Amino acid sequence: MNAAEILTQAAQQQGFLTAWAEVELPQDTRERYRDWLAQGRQAEMAYLTQNLGTRLNPRSRFAWTKSVLVLAAPHAYPPPERPPGGIRLGRVARYAWVRDYHLLIQPYLQDLERLAQSLGLQAKGYVDTGPLSERSYAAWGGLGWIGRNAMLMRMGEGTYLTLAVLLTSLPAPVEQAHYPNRCGTCRRCVAGCPTGALLGDGTLDSSRCISYWTIEHRGLIPPDCWAGMGDWLFGCDICQEVCPWNRKAQAFWQGFVPEPELAYPNLEDFFYLSSKAFQRKYAGTVFLRPGRTRMARNALVVLANLGNPDYLPLVRQGARDVNPLVRATAAEALARLGNWDSIIPLLQDPEPLVAGVARALLEGQGAQ
Prior knowledge:
- By secondary structure, the chain is of the alpha+beta class.
- The protein has helices at about 5-15, 25-40, 50-55, 100-120, 135-140, 190, 210-215, 225-230, 240, 260-265, 270, 275-280, 290-305, 310-320, 325-335, 350-365, and strands at about 15-20, 65-75, 90, 125, 145, 150-155, 160-170, 230-235.
- The protein starts with a helix and ends with a helix.
């Protein structure tokens, strides 16, 4: 076997789907990404605009790069059993039901790096940890196609795919595979998105995306976004759940083990655990990206949207939180649940953000 075949076989033995791509992305792919940025579709994710040269051409950083081995780990695993006790409301995106995929896949990628080096090659692996467009390389290499929901998809696994890449100094295969776009006339994902984030051309407006608001956004979630978020606590899978190609998807990578406490977290953790205790309990999970504060913020949106007064005590606890972001969000949630009396003390909050939100809500209620 040649070096490409050895690396491919090793990756497939680890359970990954694979494809090879030339390192130079097609010009229309690069222009499409630049246009997306120019339209501000990245919202406040400034990192997507940084290191643009490397993102669109890794050779600008690694001059030796000639090819990209794309790895895909399917994650169409079944949901675990709901654990007993706690307040387990709200939905979590499927990929977050397991330990942090960066940590799970990285050791396998490092094994492939060492194998490539033993073959006399230079190699560098990334698991969504660098300025690279894994999805673009996956489509370029024929692993699947970019669907209307802006995700890579393929028959069999649908869109439930976690991607990683291995840059190598090996020349790319002479002929790259092409995977035809099989979305056809289907627009279920576009119609199903409650916030209108999908633009219908394989791209999305991040400023409308529930996953952006619940994971990436650092501040208050605008009140006019709350209704569309429904009961999504972390991420969103709606555009995947409605996709016909996902109906029969059942494959999942050997390293993924869904955990009940991740699929159905106890909302009380986000209000009663200290930040350090939260970090200890959820170490090695993607919940650390938003952290305790923003998970509490998201939980308040979910509780308000569900509208059940039985959970008012937890919302009131949010109004006493040490973090002003949580207190300000709790004020909005209390208003939506009709508990105006609990907002009044927030008028004296030492943080102008909190006091301002409380004042605006009470004044608005008085004007009704």
